Amino acid sequence: MQPHRNWMIHLFTTLAMLLVAIKASAADRPNILLIVSDDQGYNDLGQLGNGIITPALDRLANEGTRLTNFYVAWPACTPSRASLLTGRYPQRNGIYDMIRNEAPDYGHRYTPDQYAVTFERIGGMDEREVIIPAVLKRAGYKSGIYGKWDLGALRRMLPNSRGFDDFYGFVNTGIDYFTHERYGVPCMVRNLEPTEEDKGTYCTYLFQREALRFLDEHAGEEPFFLYVPFNAPHNSSSLDPKIRSSVQAPERFKAMYPPVESETRVTDRYRYGTPATVATPQARRRDYRAAVTCMDAAIGEMLDRLEAKQMLEDTIVVFFSDNGGSGGADNSPLRGHKAQTWEGGIRVPCIVRWTAGKIPAGAVNDEFLTSLELLPSFASAAGLEPPADIVLDGFDWWPTLRGESASPREEMFWKRRDQIGARVGQWKWVQMGKQGGLFNLANDMAETHDLSESRPQILAMVKDRYANWLREMEAAEPRGPFRDF
């Protein structure tokens, strides 16, 4: 019996060592919480002093690093979200415009049969594109997404078909916060199935609920990637002008701001159906801020839950807005807003917290960084090499965030239809219809002084770099849905 006993001891010892190794390996794979707001202004953080209430985001900034020179890849939602998940320019991954229907802009409500064959229903990200959760799955990560997907509504295009393990949210660019409809069309999905189970409940509360459930189920069990893309504070997608002209927010969060003199006004100049009753600018501003504060409370709950589980220190938390602010937003001191290639459309607030990763607390980092850096940086943190067969447009940003080296990024380019933005070093060329020019962002981030005439050689250099980028994008392996191939 002695040989058998020795064999059993050896087996248990081996298993114990294996479990220790697995635990050690898991400790080397930090959890990742990625939070993206929708249309939040550059200056809309409480600690910046404009009066908005964001204690959770202020906490993140105090415990992490705030990035002041951070860009997204497109000035509106769909392409921006595709790029942050793929690490690739919109022109490279194929999503270089919006997946949305235009008819509701003119007051049209689709019938179900009409909607079923519209581009908003059938368009989506090319199925060959590889996104963050599919990469992290190689390191054993569980992944969940709760909120705005915006990259395709058909089953083969939904998050569960792209690498996510769990999904609850809406599939379009915007919804009514309570009915969860986009201009009358139900848009909520759980995993691969449409659902109206929570109709009537404010959607920020729902995304908070699902994110906390995910943390309770997975935090501590295996490394996780939790993606919470809120729709707040995006305007509400309703055909009712009074709702559409503002942002829906719970009354208790509205009450946190000073009352407005008048909630609505009548206008004879509305996009469809005049006269129309719409929100006053003051009410829209208050509603916008209330929606941000409600979202901030949900973020606070996530941070508290991770802290209670003693997992916050080794969780990478990244927060930013998908594009520049609009409506009631404050983009100061930047020029422009959402949908434009001025700084106010593409430079956004961003905060990164990772204590165990030695990201400085309470720091401000002015290095040139973008959302294209997320995929390679998350892969690096998980001990992975980025997929060798995929051309990425970003890099590992951790040395830059730790202050060990300057950002290797020297240029970034934006193209939205006929609107152009090109940054090379400190120089930025903008073409916005009849407006535009050359600007030195080192001393003019508000883009007020056009240097085109005084620095023609610099302008020619930036335009040449932009032309080179266009050629590179055109030579890239084509991707749908917009590219002709």
TrEMBL record:
Keywords: Hydrolase, Signal. Residues 30-383 form the Sulfatase N-terminal domain. Gene3D superfamilies: 3.30.1120.10, Alkaline Phosphatase, subunit A (3.40.720.10). Residues 1-26 form the signal peptide. One of its GO terms (molecular function) is arylsulfatase activity. It holds the Pfam family Sulfatase. Coiled coil: none annotated. It comes from the Bacteria. Belongs to the sulfatase family. This is N-acetylgalactosamine 6-sulfate sulfatase (GALNS). It comes from Rhodopirellula europaea 6C.
